[in-house]
Amino acid sequence: MTAPASFAAGRRAFALGALLAMLAAAPATANPLGFVTPDQWQPHAQVGILERVTLNVHWHDSAKLLREAAAKHNVDNVDLHGFSILRRTATGEWVCDVFVVRMRGALVDNDRTMTFGHEMLHCFGLRHEE
Ligand SMILES: [Zn+2]
Hints:
It contains 3 helices and 8 strands, in the order E-H-E-E-E-E-H-E-E-H-E. Strand 2 (29-30) and strand 3 (36-37) form a beta hairpin. The radius of gyration is 15 Å and the shape is globular. The chain has one domain (6-21, 51-127). The longest helix has 13 residues, at 111-123. It has a 4-stranded mixed β-sheet with strand order 1-6-7-5. It is an alpha+beta fold. Bound molecules: zinc ion (ZN). Zinc ion binds at residues 9, 11, 14, 118, 122, 128.
């Protein structure tokens, strides 16, 4: 059996697998006039934008437990809000595992909602520099 292709991404703490490490660059660049260009979503070069992904959500009760999960997956857990791991199975299916803190009692459109949406975009093959 061959190892599935995979990569991990986290909000604010970005996990760089061997694949992404080659693609990593500065998060923002200054143009000659000194304006900083904000980071933008881009399709991952080896994945493209997916239309069908099996999603597994791993809800954690606290940021501490989320960080412990990140450590088990070798994801940098400094200032971590959530992370996701997208992989392709031996049969060619895409599977994404999202790791976030449970949104119990959370306000609509707050930080946890944004983190969840952010990780979902990674699940469909989008990436960013940082
Ligand atoms: Zn991200």
